[in-house]
Amino acid sequence: MTDVTERFATEAPSGHPNRPPRDAATLILLDRSGPVPKVLMGKRHQGHVFLPGRFVFPGGAVDPRDRLMTPGTPLDPRAEARLMRHVKRPSPAKARALALTAIRETFEETGLLLGTRRDDAPKAPEGPWSAFADAHVYPDLGGVHFIARAITPPGRSRRYDTRFFTADATAIAHKIDGVTGPDAELVELVWIPLDETKRLELMAITEMVLETLQEQISAGFSHDLPVPFYRMLHKKRIREFL
């Protein structure tokens, strides 16, 4: 285990009631058009109680309506299979909803709609997904890669079972301006060279996932590559592969 893995289990204050983690998803947008890969990160508002001023990837908890959104393409079956491992009541619908959550959260926090524009509008539930219908954008799950999973250690004020996804910047089909700014959850968006992210003050899990992303890019960025799963088991930090 590396030092950053040690931090994953100890960096946040413990002592809170042990509550079950909520299903969540995060998306890392990757721009490989230049000589050096870049990732899109947002800086959180200084007024936030949770992670003020930190650079993060867009993400959040699963919304039941995410299951109701119409995707334009299915998940890769290898990603779908890994998403259903170590899950209570696994199903393709749940795997699909996790990937859709990452796309929805990216839109809500950045204004970017990821997918494919068509002549017709997708069937969408009320709420944030209606913007996809208005723009005739179908979420593209086929271009989404599942690269890591992590469960917040017990005793934290907030606990999530987070799946980390990546998608290429070419998946951006539409943008709504004004989503980020001084009064928003993310005050600014920055494309950061992947090898420069180590200079930022990041959460331990963010560092670990970025290391995984670099390894996967070097290995060909295939759906066949193993997906690390970080969690605590019997009070021990473990990393296994899905």
Radius of gyration: 17 Å
Query: Runs with pLDDT <50, length 5+?
Result: none
Q: What would the average pLDDT be, to the nearest integer?
A: 89
Can you count the beta strands? 13
> How many separate helices?
5
Give the strand content. 25-35%
Helix content: 10-25%
What is the SS-derived class? alpha+beta
Shape: globular
Order of helices and strands: HEEEEHHEEHEEEEEHEE
- The oligomeric state of the chains shown is single chain
Biggest sheet record: 9 strands, mixed
In short:
This protein is of the alpha+beta class and 242 residues long. It is 22% helix and 29% strand.
Give the key terms.
5 helices; globular; nine-stranded mixed β-sheet; two-stranded antiparallel sheet; 242 residues; alpha+beta
What does this structure look like?
This protein has 242 residues and is an alpha+beta fold. The protein has 5 helices and 13 strands. Strands 1, 2, 3, 4, 8, 9, 11, 12 and 13 form a 9-stranded mixed beta sheet that branches. The protein starts with a helix and ends with a strand.
Give a topology summary.
Layout: H1 3-10, E1 22-31, E2 38-44, E3 55-56, E4 59-61, H2 77-83, H3 92-110, E5 112-114, E6 116-117, H4 130-134, E7 137-138, E8 145-151, E9 160-168, E10 172-175, E11 186-193, H5 204-218, E12 228-233, E13 236-241
Parallel strand pairs: 1-9, 8-12
Antiparallel strand pairs: 1-2, 1-4, 2-3, 2-11, 5-10, 6-7, 8-9, 12-13
